[in-house]
Amino acid sequence: MTEDILRYDILVQNALRGVIRKVLSEVDKTGLPGNHHFFITFLTGAQGVKVSNRIKEQYPEQMTIVVQHQYWELEVNETGFGIGLSFSDIPEKLYIPYSAVRGFYDPSVNFELEFDVEQAEEDGDASVTAIGTAQPVLQDPASDDEADDKETTAEDDKSSDEGGDNSADVVSLDSFRKKK
Predict the structure, then answer these.
(1) What is the Cα–Cα distance from 93 to 83, expressed in whole angstroms?
(2) In 5-149, which residue ranges form alpha helices assigned H by DSSP?
(3) DSSP string computed for 153-179
(4) Under 8 Å CB-to-CB from 177, ≥6 apart: which residues?
């Protein structure tokens, strides 16, 4: 088999993370349009992630934030984004590099990006290493309550008024590609 010197897998991941950057940049300029809102899962110990010690202790590996009604100071740049959120009525400022993002989900349109990333050991090297490619995931349009099944955080816990155990089948685009 030929070695992939161009590293298409990394190029694809970077391009898909660019989708997150573009979406958040638009939200930064104009606010959330319509019913759009986002669940963003990230590694709390990844290089460049800035969260309070309280949040880091509560979520030592990863956490999911909800960008919907109550956020402030969204600042988007080329490498990541900063955002203010409230956790148990305590305001916090977070900075999340795109390389630390494991998932991005907009339940209003059933759009999801998943990234396979691995957190480095805690021996001083807290970088994020890619272990696969990210792919958009198609979901069953009938599952409007898919957000209920996502990992929740403090903002989601206190403000969510949805409930239920509805779930959707996640279908990878690879399953529709022709096999050679």
Answers:
(1) 6
(2) 8-30, 53-58
(3) -HHHHHH----------EEEGGGGSPP
(4) none
pLDDT for 74-120, tens place per residue?
999 999 999 999 988 899 999 999 999 999 999 999 999 998 766 54
Helix (H, G, I), strand (E, B) or coil at 46: coil
Both tokens of 17, joined, read 């993370």
Structure tokens at 87: 């956790």
Determine contact, residues 121/24, Cβ cutoff 8 Å: no
Measured distance CA(117)–CA(103) in Å, rounded: 10
Report DSSP state, residue 15.
H
pTM of the model: 0.66
C-alpha to C-alpha distance for 17 and 110, rounded to whole angstroms: 17
Q: Which CATH superfamily is domain 8-176 in?
A: SspB-like (2.30.30.220)
Q: In the predicted model, is pLDDT for residue 8 greater than 70?
A: yes
Give all strands of the β-sheet with 38-43 in edge-to-edge order.
Answer: 62-67, 38-43, 101-106, 111-114, 135-139, 170-172
